[in-house]
Amino acid sequence: MKIAVCVKQVPDTWAEKKLRSDDSTLDRESADGVMNELDEYAVEEALQIAEANSGEVTIVTMGPDRAAETVRKALSMGADAGIHLVDDSLHGSDAIATSYALAKVLEGRGFDLIIFGSESTDARMSVVPAMVAERLGVAQLTFAQKVNVAGSTVTIERATDYGYDTVEASTPAVISVVEKINEPRYPSFKGIMAAKKKPVESLGAGDAGIDGGQIGLSAAWSGVNDFAVRPPKAAGTVVTDEAGDGGIKIAEFLSAQKFI
Amino acid sequence: MAEVLVLVEQLDGSVKKVTSELLTLARSLGEPAAVWVGGGLDDAAAASLAEFGAATIYVADSADLSEFAVAPKAEVLAQLVAEKSPAAVLIASNAEGKEVAGRLAVKANSGVITDAVAVDSGFVATQSVFGGSTVVHSKVTKGTPIITVRPNSVAPEAAAGAGTKVAVSVALTDSAKKAKVTGRTVAAKGGRPELAEAAIVVSGGRGVGAAEGFGVIESLADSLGAAVGASRAATDAGWYPHQYQVGQTGKTVSPQLYIANGISGAIQHRAGMQTSKTIVVVNKDAEAPMFELADYGVVGDLFAVVPQLTEEIKKRTS
Question: Do A142 and B115 touch (CB under 8 A)?
């Protein structure tokens, strides 16, 4: 079974994220880059499926040079190979362009499963897996809290607001996972050493057959008019519950605000 | 006036509040047209769509539309976009709504904006990003604007529309029939409102200390008719089910009132609730970052403060 995992390098969760003043894109330079947290769960799920089905896991990323670190991290967890789509012309690509570029990289390689994290911690749109499924014309099995693979049949529990739906499809399929699904492994020292020798294919946009008119900031389907950093919230009232009437004080506040 | 399509959110035939919000918003942008996908549109549901201004209700009703996940809704909308050339498409910003929007954007070769908290008459959307630290105004520049709007962003206001039903026939492509829904499991949730839609959310975190500790959180929520949320520390510890997690890898909520109990306020949590209109914080640690967001905060033991608050609310509202 051939499995691809699409991962994204994002600014460290703990870092202050900001937009660039020149082109309103995410400032990726000002913060350390890490693997998007939910993608670690995607890598783990792929490794578990591969272990149970004698599969092979390929890590796919799109991003600047340093996104290669994220591919290496996934390889050190145990994935077999990597593909890094890297091209200056991709800068500023929106979700539509990203899904197009990823689909071009993925198509024709015979992947049975393509696994994503269900959202990135920077853009938080959660649309790229669905868009890639749409573009490739394959089944969309997203927001999985459980994945079961039996031959060419894949069944997931899709997390919903009210519980979960059971959704079934045949491979090939696009899967996205939520964090409930597993506990990602930490790379072992042996894994880190082995990762250095694993193959990573570096592709430019042209190598992947990507039409330059469909990617990058100038081709984006939507644009930022303006943005502003929200001023820190004005300090509210904070009292210490010394007299043991803290609950009553909150009730008075809620009453004054017409909540009760 | 050009139509603005609103994809109806419903559960077992009853229209959700977010749809009334979206229809209210659509009225400020053009002529609202509701799009109902699947069976079960009864008179009550149609009346509720008309009440909030739907001039037209497009009804795509065939059995197979409900049998498959996500893709059929995108196909129905794509067909309507092609036939009716609407001014925009509005969809609720939840997991499924965003995926429908994404697939529709690809099909209709149109731009998509998610998680809008406002949309002005020029179709400029306001988003609150990076955990609420940055406000962005953006606009779709190609095709039909497809915008997902967060629940609780607009106050629903009734204004009767004609609510004329128009049947839409859709022949699903094979590609839309690849992910079959074979079962639906509804977790026991009691009578509380849905987390993403609730006007009031009462949350518990690490300070709650144990699964049993959520009893006081639930009692407070019930006294206010609120939904219950939890921080990741609480769900990871197994004290409360994952689907109630508020934060970066869980739900994003934007209620009128958010009461955070025993939640320190890590950035992951703040990213999921920072746009709440009014925030009340109870924490025994005066240094907890959560207090920076508080409109009103009490430094104290939540097991003393919260039950007292619950009792006081009951006293005042009985």
Answer: no
